């Protein structure tokens, strides 16, 4: 085996816990290895996956309005959670660059690789721009903020990434964000709205099966990194949307009774026929929920910037 199988990682522990109980689950944060990043890039191009295009159109249309709120300050920070390739943020950065704004951009991402690429490309496109990448997970980055907290801050949390948290966890994350900010600082947060359930479900069950591969990739990753022997053909990608709570949940359903061995854990896991592993939640909101969520986590909603169909919002909040 060419990989050194380690059982002392967070991934190993989480897989062991997640597959041991009766309600099996794996966290969607483990989707994003190299292959997963690639698949997610493909998802963003899918005709059914409206989220990215909608948010892009919002930023194209409203970036001036959004940025007016912070351009008044002589100097400011722009902090971005989960910056990734920063493609959407470039709309904002380009505008700030042309306005000769005095700011520092702090992209936060767990992938140092992606951040390096982003930094290089920003220095080419916008020479002289101040970029200070932070390689970290959300939690650590918010615990000890590396940006100057005396300077006015706009924090970006785009892409509906907050949707991966169920309500209570979203409140926890947003409270952490609030704690990392000062009175008067702002956050721009991307939320996908509740809408026709069919449109939502299709976004997570595309006709080319890219989302299916994305979901199954978590099993591939267990096979590769932990020496698992999952047979991918024996699991079915099964997304469901609940229009009451707005949760779109994805599952991998075992098509047969089977046993899987994970070498690194020295454990075997039994799957009953039709037993499901819960892998992801993508929560959809309505406007009343947004107001509640903001209030619960210590913010006020300043303005909602929406696309023309009302599918998505970048919601501007102030602490
Ligand atoms: C990156 C978390 C916003 O939930 O819509 C896309 C991830 N999962 N297709 C989402 C995802 C399946 C995506 N987020």
UniProtKB/TrEMBL annotation:
Kindly report, in one word, the top-level EC class recorded for this enzyme.
transferase
Q: Which UniProt keywords apply?
A: Methyltransferase, Transferase
MF terms in GO: L-histidine N(alpha)-methyltransferase activity
Keyword Methyltransferase tagged: yes
Is Methyltransferase found in the keyword set?
Answer: yes
A Pfam short name? Methyltransf_33
State which Enzyme Commission number(s) the record gives: 2.1.1.44
Q: Known InterPro entries for this protein? A: EgtD (IPR035094), EgtD_Methyltrsf_superfamily (IPR051128), MeTrfase_dom (IPR019257), MeTrfase_EgtD-like (IPR017804), SAM-dependent_MTases_sf (IPR029063)
Name its GO BP terms in alphabetical order: methylation
Task: Tell me where on the tree of life, at the top rank, the source sits.
Answer: Bacteria
Boundaries of every Histidine-specific methyltransferase SAM-dependent domain copy: 11-318
| Full protein name | L-histidine N(Alpha)-methyltransferase
What is the species of this protein?
Answer: Echinicola arenosa
């Amino acid at each position: 085996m060419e990989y050194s199988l380690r059982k002392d990682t967070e991934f190993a522990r989480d897989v062991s816990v997640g597959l041991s109980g009766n309600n099996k689950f794996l966290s969607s944060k483990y989707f994003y290895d190299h292959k997963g990043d690639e698949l997610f890039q493909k998802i963003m191009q899918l005709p059914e996956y409206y989220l990215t295009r909608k948010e892009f159109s919002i930023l194209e249309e409203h970036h001036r309005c959004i940025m007016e709120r912070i351009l008044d300050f002589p100097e400011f920070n722009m902090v971005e959670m989960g910056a990734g390739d920063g493609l959407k943020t470039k709309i904002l950065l380009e505008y700030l660059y042309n306005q000769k704004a005095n700011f520092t951009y702090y992209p936060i991402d767990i992938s140092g690789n992606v951040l390096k690429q982003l930094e290089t490309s920003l220095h080419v496109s916008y020479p002289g721009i101040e970029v200070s990448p932070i390689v970290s997970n959300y939690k650590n980055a918010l615990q000890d903020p590396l940006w100057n907290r005396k300077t006015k801050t706009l924090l970006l949390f785009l892409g509906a990434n907050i949707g991966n948290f169920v309500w209570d966890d979203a409140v926890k994350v947003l409270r952490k964000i609030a704690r990392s900010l000062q009175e008067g600082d702002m956050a721009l947060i991307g939320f996908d709205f509740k809408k026709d359930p069919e449109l939502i479900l299709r976004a997570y069950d595309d006709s080319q099966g890219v989302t299916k591969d994305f979901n199954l990739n978590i099993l591939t990753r267990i096979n590769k990194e932990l020496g698992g022997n999952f047979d991918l053909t024996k699991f079915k990608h099964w997304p469901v949307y609940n229009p009451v709570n707005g949760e779109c949940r994805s599952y991998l359903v075992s098509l047969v009774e089977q046993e899987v061995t994970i070498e690194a854990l020295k454990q075997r896991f039994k799957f009953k026929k039709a037993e499901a592993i819960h892998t992801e939640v993508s929560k959809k909101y309505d406007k009343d929920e947004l107001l509640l969520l903001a209030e619960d986590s210590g913010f006020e909603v300043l303005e909602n910037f929406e696309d023309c169909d009302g599918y998505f919002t970048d919601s501007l909040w102030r602490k």
